[in-house]
Amino acid sequence: MRGFPVVxxxxxHAGAEAALSAARAGADVAMITxxxxxxxxxxxxxxxxxxxxxxxxxxxxxxxxxxxEAADRAAVQFRMLNRRKGPAVWGPxxxxxxxxxxxxxxxxxxxxxxxxxxxxxxxxxxxxxxxxSVILADGGRMGCGSVVLAPGTFLGAVLxxxxxxxxxxxxxxxxxxxxxxxxxxxGFHVERFKxxxxxxxxxxSIDYTKVSVQAEEGGVWRFSSRHGAETSRVRAVCHTARTxxxxxxxxxxxxxxxxLYSGDIRGRGPRYCPSFEDKAVRFPDREHHPVFFExxxxxxxxxxxxxxxxxxxxxNQLEMIRSLPGCGRAVVAVWGYAVEYxxxxxxxxxxxxxxxxxxxxxxxxxxxxxxxxxEAAGFxxxxxxxxxxxxxxxxxxxxxxxxxxxxxxxxxxxxGKDLAxxxxxxxxxxxxxxxxxxxxxxxxxxxxSVEAGISRPGDARLLDAxxxxxxxxxxxxxxxxxxxKLLSELCRQPGFDPVTLGILSPGLSGYDxxxxxxVALDERYAGYVEKAARKAKDVERMAxxxxxxxxxxxxxxxxxxxxxxxxxxxxxxNLREAAELPGxxxxxxxGLLIGILRRVPRxxxx
Amino acid sequence: xxxxxxxxxxxxxxxxxxxxxxxxxxxCARMVEEYFGLTAGRLSGMRRALSACxxxxxxxxxxVLLLSWxxxxxxTGEEMVxxxxxxxxxxxxxxxxxxxxxxxxxxxPGEFTxxxxxxxxxxxxxxxxxxxxxxxxxxxxxxxxxxxxxxSLEMALGRVQESLEAAIExxxxxxxEEEDIETLMQAAGDSAGVLASVAxxxxxxxxxxxxxxxxxxxxxxxxxxxxxERAVVAPEEGTTRDGASALLVLAGRExxxxxxxxxxxxxxxxxxxxxxxxAIGMVGRDDMVVWMSRxxxxxxxxxxxxxxxxxxxxxxLADECGGGGLRLSSRTGEGVEAxxxxxxxxxxxxxxxxxxxxxxxxxxxxxxxxxxxELAGASEEIADALDELASVMDRGTGIELAVERxxxxxxxxx
Lengths: 606, 414
What we know:
The complex is a heterodimer of chains A (606) and B (414). Chain A has 606 residues and is an alpha+beta fold. Chain A is built from 19 helices and 22 strands. In chain A, strands 1, 2, 6, 7, 8, 9 and 20 form a seven-stranded mixed beta sheet that branches. In chain A, strands 14-15-16-17-13-18 form a six-stranded antiparallel beta sheet, with no helix packed on it. A four-stranded antiparallel beta sheet of chain A has the order 11-10-19-12, with no helix packed on it. Chain B has helices at 28-36, 89-101, 111-118, 124-136, 143-169, 178-203, 218-226, 270-282, 302-307, 318-321, 336-345, 351-371, 375-393, 400-407, and strands at residues 6-9, 16-24, 47-52, 63-69, 80-87, 105-106, 206-211, 245-250, 253-259, 288-294, 310-316, 326-327. Chain B is flat and about 75 Å long.
């Protein structure tokens, strides 16, 4: 029997980062995947990044991960979302060439010596709480020091389209049914979530004169701050259009056969990434929903129709698509479908992403209840580092601080929690989002990376230079003046463009302009960042507030619906418990505080 | 939380048919039982008992009606007893003395209401509304109006926050126009303005104290501003020993003007100490002090300046003594209009007015942030405004101090 210190099950975004970070941490790694050709495949939308998610990609880059570089290389369109909404919430995102992206991931795995084994993991040999070996479908076994489970949507998965339903992890791939059964039999609690994907249509069948071009935005940038980060020079064009009442009617007409509404799908889907039939039902007054035509690659003929995810029968899908501008003769290459899959609720997941009551099993990605490539990759990276630590007998665990990174925010949002729906990262989930910016991701995470022993060669030297320069710039800002004002004061003035700092102060001319900008933004947001820290303390003090007197949490306003429903479902006894509930954001907690303090029935002591 | 037992007369002092004494705090029922010689437990829970003053006292035999409430169900939220006795100061005084003998402490101004606030029975808004009713009687702004204004502001701020967050997180999927956010912010700003004006009415006119050393022209200024001979003015030092007051409109702002006794720095005499004590004792956080000294020769007394919400320094008798800053001479009229303008334009001093103004500033800052393309910053400002609003709508957190101030003006035992 072959054996590896770390065995990663799954070759998606979580699995790839897990394998790579375990390798960087010094472990020999094997990856078990059903199809070598699907490693690093983007199963849904052909884009990486977004608000907060793009920042995660940059954090991954600083932690030595590969997602940023791969996305840069595969990029066919760059967009800096929220360009005019402030650098704190800029959302770096690229459209990718799917093939190029997957190729980069495979190359990184090869370069890092990850051994790829094609096969299906169907169970484990246990010795007490530890897994000794992974059992493969062909009867083979692979010994392991620790395991990372990253099966994506494959765990006990069922695909749906209209009345059709079939077992499968993704269109064209089989599901991990035996692994799912093994985990259940072993006593793990497996719940079900749902997600879906829109149809892909042939580029040649679209009349592009009827749709608008969605331009690039925000100039040239890279996810990766590594020297010599490459990027594709060729660009593809995205288009946008809007649906009409015909689209909405077509969706409604199919509802009777929709697996979502017939009750066939039990699992909850992501509220923030709804199917089009969901939109038609939940927003009956709206008919002009945006649709984005996203090419899936430079050589690909398929166009991904972002915004019309659906699991309706083919007829209804066709009617919907044909109602879109420029799509009167559209040819559907792949029909939309929904997938219902098993996940392990976060109540069984520790902060280091080890599965509870195991000694060496880690989880990452959708098996934890997350959605999104970036979330998966962030979890994968952390799970890989800790799996390597266990396999190599090291005591330290890597648990990123939620005050310092979105990766930390995600893990603290999931670990120990019971989610009501697939988890998507938002910038507002951070307690301190003015601090968790894309521009300083590298500065925030590089020291962590070096200290955790997962950085790339040469990073320690980069870190020294980075910290020295940051300090130097901060000094200039705090002592230098322009027009009688300290430069740091200037930075705080709304409307002041820190890009001009280099011109205002000769002392800054020797530094990297991007770093100057980033340190200037630290100065700009310093007041907010300090305040957020104080607030976090206040909330801690209030955590013991008694909530048992609240008759109906759903009647509280100033809180998101997601949080209200969660509160009413779990009925926490105090604010601390409320804070732990799925779907509660810091802003919801504050809203709850305000709402409760105002509505406590007379005679209830607070 | 236990604060000890307090007891006080809740009805106006003097002769009346009935006087009501209130005692509040853990153990007060037992104390009252003991004083009136009732069996233990007679007043536990929500009970009513007829009794009589103990024979040993000078009012022995006088009938009293005792009402008790358990903690959590009384006005203060604590265990509480009301003693209704014949409306004679002697009897009421006797009972209060007796209770004090058993360990009760006389309550400070507004202490019952303060306890109601601290034990979560009233919001700051309700306390302010109540104090407004007590101060001005009919026509006062009632809590309903304040709560409505606060609720509309909360809703308006909530909508701004929602639209900002949606614009940040769903930048491509939603069609939130910047003009829409601007309109919502405008609405929130208007709501804050409404709350400020209701709060201003509820909190009443700002109190302005003329303070300073003897013979610095306080009474002369008082008379000038009040437009009539109200205070006795004389060239002898220390003519004013008791304060005079007048309700005025200065440059459009309603103020209650107070003259205070002057004092001598380092003065040893009884009168000086008393004068300083009176001046200090009268001034509170919500008040404005006009510190007057001849030609600006003396720094404001630090105790007074610390207590006052706003201190305005004036060089008085400027025609004789000169001085810089705000120069004032009641004789020539120099600086009088300027002083009126300064008083009128000073920020509000009332707690809720201050808060409302603060919320208005946050909303303004949010608009600036939005225009400067800083949506996250704008959202933070709106969150601050909501925090501020929460702190005045709260029950019993964070703003005890502010409520202390509001309560400082209240009659004992209300």
